[in-house]
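Something for you to look into today, if you have time. Just paste the record in under my message, thanks.
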Amino acid sequence: MAKKKEEVPAPGSPAWMATFSDLMNLLLCFFVLLFSMSTVDQEKFEEVAASFSQAFSIFTRGSQAIGDGVLISNGVSQLNQLDDYINSTGQPVESSENPEDLLAEAEKMLEEAKQAQSEEMAEMVEEAISEAGMDDMIELDYTSQYVQLTLNGSLLFASGSAELKPEAEEVLQQVGVILERYAESTIEIEGHTDNQPINTARFPSNNELSDARALSVFYYLIGHTNLDPAIIKHSGRGEYCPIADNSTIEGRALNRRVEIKIYNSLSAY
């Protein structure tokens, strides 16, 4: 009977050792990675985390955890908190402030800023009016939206007319200089009349008369200044916005007027 030939083992290491070596290499890389993360520059990391938080509203809570070293700097033993970290990352910071209260506060701050800007502009315009010697010709007022110049209608126009008087042009020339200097936004020209009816071929009612007067001032300003016509609005308000009693001569004289509103840069116009 022939003797059975013994099997010769394959040269090299057993197959299981290759798998074991790969596993060891992976574990080594894993721990090296953990070690490298634990020695990260905390100051630089916080700057990056803050940048991401502002840009994408993430890491609000996670960045604080990493900055304090809760997850990484203490080593692998802290990995059991990874699940809590992931779940908390990106959640908005709880605030005790009511959103409606925050909105109201923001609106209040904006209104105060607009009021302050109008007040500052009104002071400069008033100084320019005084330097031009027109204190008795132009009335100044302001709101949080605009600074308003009021010119009496009798100074600008004859009764029932929309043609500028020769003496009105000097006043409007000074007004144009003021507008060029201080107008940062929209300019609005409004014509107003009293309640005395008018019915002519050109002006069937006070609406047409007030509109034509506002348009005359508009044409003068764009023809004698460098103002952009695109920022100037004009309208006729007729008799519907009186500032005085129309039952008296004095009151009707005050109601016949042209108002020029200079809106500030924070206004809604």
Observations:
- The CA atoms of residues 119 and 142 lie 7 Å apart.
